[in-house]
Amino acid sequence: MYNGTLPPNNSYQPWAEKDLSNSSNCINDGFKYPLYSTVFSIVFVVGLLTNVVAIYIFTCTLKLRNETTTYMMNLVVSDLLFVFTLPLRVFYFINGNWPFGSTLCKVSVSLFYTNMYGSILFLTCISVDRFLAIVYPFRSRALRTKRNAKIVCVAVWVLVLSGSLPTGFLLETTSPNNNKTNAAIFCFENFSSKQWKAHLSKVVIFIETVGFVIPLLLNVCCSIMVLHTLRRPRTVGRGGKLNKKKILRMIIVHLFIFCFCFIPYNVNLVFYALVRTKTLEGCFVESVVRTIYPIALCIAVSNCCFDPIVYYFTSETIQNSIKRKSQGNRSIDVKFSEALQSETTSNLQCSLRHLKAKVFHNESSV
């Protein structure tokens, strides 16, 4: 949940109420503004490039699409929606002013939570789908269809948007000096303690349970069950060693990205909510929580860059498509070189015949 002190060049604190004014002196998180602007800039460039490449592969290169690629496609859309808002955030954290209007501020906040928990749920769908395919390959055939995958994706979008939109639209842009025409407008900063106690603490409980704890348990349990299944000697059959290595690598990459990106932020968010609702008090506790929060948030945002790695390691279809494309390019190069060589040879032979005819013509003339 965005909150905290304002950029260092501004002294106004729209979130600061009487119950926070005493503790604001022990908060020193001004480092987060250059951190946000730097990390968000990198994530924008890398996330935009990798996800555009991914969406190109999904829409233009892949001929075979299944339920796994359906989940991945929705994950790409979730990432791109958030990535497109990052330049606005970078502008704000550099200049300390939001000139883009109240609605766009609320939409930007909403898309952050849409991406965060949409990514968690879509990655969980991929994990569950792989679990069914490996552990119950025959019994899950009727369940693992593109139609059912689309229904699940719609349900995920409804669930995520029902939590993120109300949260984002609780936020109001704030100007410290409404009488001044050139007064700075602030965004991402002004959830008050009253809002935390009345609404946001309940939202945190909901999103932490439905959007993080349950998906985390599902990812871990599915991975354990898949690993247990792979230990059986007759599980994979022909080419089993290679398949087991691929699946093991897929699980490791999937779990690492999931845990690295989402655990720090969501664990810290619980303590952050306790601090903001004054359940946890004390200068040291608040200082530690507010110091960790920007770092955890930047790590969470980086999931936009890591998701394409999951696409590659999870989907053999994508790997085969990339390999076929590279092999196709090599075969085109070979054919071109052969054609060029053949054309060169024929031209050389034609030149020799022409030269020979000319010599014989000269001899006959003499």
Keywords:
366 residues; mainly alpha; Rhopdopsin 7-helix transmembrane proteins; 11 helices; 75% helix; globular; disordered N terminus; disordered C terminus; membrane; transducer
Mean pLDDT: 77
Report how far apart the termini are: 100 Å
String of helices and strands: HHHHHHHHHHH
Stretches with pLDDT under 50, minimum 5 residues: 3-23, 331-337, 358-366
Helical amount: over 70%
* Assembly context of the chains: single chain
From the 3D coordinates, which CATH architecture would you assign?
A: Up-down Bundle
- Domain count: the total is 1
Largest sheet: none
Task: Describe the overall structure.
This protein is mainly alpha-helical and 366 residues long. It has eleven helices and no strands. It has one domain: Rhopdopsin 7-helix transmembrane proteins, CATH 1.20.1070. The longest helix is centred in the C-terminal third of the chain and has 50 residues, at 316-365. It starts with 17 loop residues before the first helix and ends with a helix. Mean pLDDT is 77; it is low at 3-23, 331-337 and 358-366.
Question: What is the secondary structure topology, with strand pairs?
Answer:
Elements: H1 18-21, H2 32-61, H3 67-83, H4 86-95, H5 102-135, H6 146-168, H7 193-230, H8 240-276, H9 283-301, H10 303-314, H11 316-365
Helix pairs in contact: 2-3, 2-4, 2-9, 2-10, 3-5, 3-6, 3-10, 5-6, 5-7, 5-8, 5-10, 7-8, 8-9, 8-10
In brief:
With 366 residues, the protein is mostly helical. It has eleven helices and no strands. The chain has a single domain (18-314), classed as Up-down Bundle (Rhopdopsin 7-helix transmembrane proteins), CATH 1.20.1070.
